[in-house]
DNA sequence: ACGTCAGGGTCAAAGGTCGG
DNA sequence: TCCGACCTTTGACCCTGACG
């Protein structure tokens, strides 16, 4: 026993709990607060005394102090790298069975779903980087967190837009194939999800990639060319898709300080859409969606608790999910844009684009998707992406 | 359970309190007396009976007897180093934080937001009922919870669809006007929200109204006529809007057992869309949206806690919010349907419909909305709804 | 094997609520 | 106003599983 005093209330400590030396009272209080997702509100000035005798007077300030003292619900240090302390971090775990009652063999302990999604994302970003290195002179794109070289960036042409969409589609399929929950689905359902999600997920990706830009009213395409709001209308953006992406998605993402974890979660949630057209096994898709949703909500709550003082993080999961309706609407308009562009012969629509973006009424010829789905991951992707050059 | 009789008044005891076996009454009396430092004085001989029926006759004697029975106001152990007295000692503690639980009056003074929304909804439903009573032979619709009379229901005609949309728009404006958060907005922003939300909110309303139907693949329009999935395609539903409403909204709502509270919350969240076109005061709209979101998430968590065994309620807020992207997409298609129907002269588009559903690019002539917004609630609504007859 | 640490749960006895 | 039936929260104490 190194220390004896509770870092929260100065009572006698009983050891380290959730990352902080604390007493049994503060330990129990913290667990209950996390478990029941309590959101307390201070009735005074947010600076109430939290001492042994007064600790029950204000739960908001007590919880605040727990967090300040280092208590964590998932133990992940908020923004620091910690590859070492991945072992042994404190955490509020899942509820256990009641003591004294019969045990129900519970299944858990598997790797966090959201971490898996981050890995899948990193894989695809590496793929993209290597492709871009070969097709342009830009620095590789490191998972949306690299600083931007404005000097190197150039404005997108109509051709860039078409190529970018094509690239994104190829990467999208690779991404999907790397998700276990996807691979277990029937072939037809795979096609349904790909077709139903392509446009939205491309828009989501473009938006997330663009939050690091500091130049106003501009988005960053998949091949790292830039597309400004006004410029876009000259290259076929009849529906102001670019403007809407910036106003309705990129700026809100910036305000919310959306991070990579949240991005990959939203992407997967969007993708596993059980009510997508022609989906036969809705339950399987729904299960996958809800599994991601559960991880996502948990992480949002954790993040909110680590940032109690910052209102941005309150109701975080809801705020982020509310980006999706706009996203859906914009994606639909993007499809219209592409349809119109094809109608006027402005853009060269290849078969993959036709299959995934222009969702026709007719039951699609599954040839193209079959080919993409059948090929093993990483095999000649570069070749496939560059085939358009 | 050690003893059963209160040592102070012989009432039934509820356990040991402050060091004495006692009832809840004596427990509460002792706490209040100590907390408020009451000094009672006996008006008789200091030997009043303290029994269940007479205990409130003399507070001085009651408190005296509490103390005699062993109640202690301060359990400070005689010495700090008495490791033996680790047993809990009775004490009146300091005042704690408010917990706010018991039904009705809610936390921090102001009425719960979601309750306000339910009231607004009920008001509009009453309005609708009275309108329908005058224009059809159907029983009044009681807030979505009345049983359906299949014999009385009839299939919707194209005319019904147009009328239904018009009715919904009028009620939509009335509903918005009844929300305080709406009335505080600038005139232009009001128009922006109404235009941006009309289609989605009509679809949401139709869907929620339809969950009580037990007949398959059918929705219930605002004037209580029925519209089947197949039948709809014959009356201008080119985009399969009806089918999508059923598959993507109504059925998921049924699976989730969505209730009225959740419906009104989603409606308001959808309505207060800060990124709607032409909105100048995004912050005000966002504040309104997030206020509803907060109430909504809180209620979802409460509902989940009440139904721990039922998996349906896990992540409830997220599951419900995920109805909105589909809803948005469908609403957009409904707009297209209406546009096409007008193009082919199939439907009579009145000015309100033109203004709210067919969001043109041109900055709209604010005449029509101004009129609607200016008129006091409840004034000649019936006349306005029936103007089309 | 066995103690320590840090998760989890329990439930008596504190607390607060609010109609009467 | 105060009372007290009824509810929630607290925290001392105990159980469990991982690790050395």
Would you mind describing this structure in some detail?
The structure is a homodimer of 389-residue chains. The first copy, chain A, is built from 15 helices and four strands. The first copy, chain A, is mainly α and 389 residues long. The first copy, chain A, has two domains: 15-69, Erythroid Transcription Factor GATA-1, subunit A (Erythroid Transcription Factor GATA-1, Chain A), CATH 3.30.50.10; 113-374, Retinoid X Receptor (Orthogonal Bundle). In chain A, the strands form two sheets. Chain A has a two-stranded antiparallel ribbon with strand order 1-2. Chain A has a two-stranded antiparallel sheet with strand order 3-4. In chain A, helix 3 (113-135) packs antiparallel against helix 4, helix 3 crosses helix 9 (260-271) and helix 6 packs across helix 12 (323-343). The longest helix of chain A is centred in the last third of the chain and has 25 residues, at 282-306. The radius of gyration of chain A is 24 Å and the shape is elongated. The structure holds a DNA duplex (20 and 20 nucleotides).
Write the layout of secondary structure elements.
2 copies of one chain form a homodimer.
Chain A: E1 16-17, E2 20-21, H1 24-35, H2 59-68, H3 113-135, H4 158-177, H5 180-183, H6 187-210, E3 218-220, E4 226-228, H7 229-233, H8 241-256, H9 260-271, H10 282-306, H11 316-321, H12 323-343, H13 351-356, H14 367-374, H15 381-386
Antiparallel strand pairs in A: 1-2, 3-4
Helix pairs in contact in A: 3-4, 3-9, 4-6, 6-8, 6-9, 6-12, 8-12, 9-10
Chain B binds a DNA duplex (20 and 20 nucleotides) through strand 1 and helix 1.
